[in-house]
Amino acid sequence: MTMDTASDYNYPHITSNLxxxxxxxxxxxxxxxxxxxxxxxxxxxxxxxxxxxxxxxxVHAALTYFFDFREEIERLLEEERAILKQQKxxxxxxxxxxx
Length: 99
Description:
Number of strands: 2
Helix content: 40-55%
Number of domains: 1
Strand content: 5-15%
Distance between the termini: 62 Å
Number of helices: 5
Shape: globular
Low-confidence stretches: none
CATH superfamily: Winged helix-like DNA-binding domain superfamily/Winged helix DNA-binding domain
Structural class: mainly alpha
CATH topology: Arc Repressor Mutant, subunit A
Largest sheet: 2 strands, antiparallel
Radius of gyration: 16 Å
Strand order of the largest sheet: 1-2
């Protein structure tokens, strides 16, 4: 049995950005970002209120993609967390001081 991939389906409102990440069409908002808000406990209406440039249909499409490809999006979120953690650890007090 083969594993389904995102390319096997047509997701209205979802495209890929230059990095290959699933993104809301016509925006720079990634599915990863929508999933992050959802994981913080926000529902679709609250996400729409926070990201006023998105329609409810776009938010629901992103959430559908997230639920269908949860492992992929969780991996992207973890990669982002690792990058942020590394950047934070590389900062020294010198970088935080003002002249």
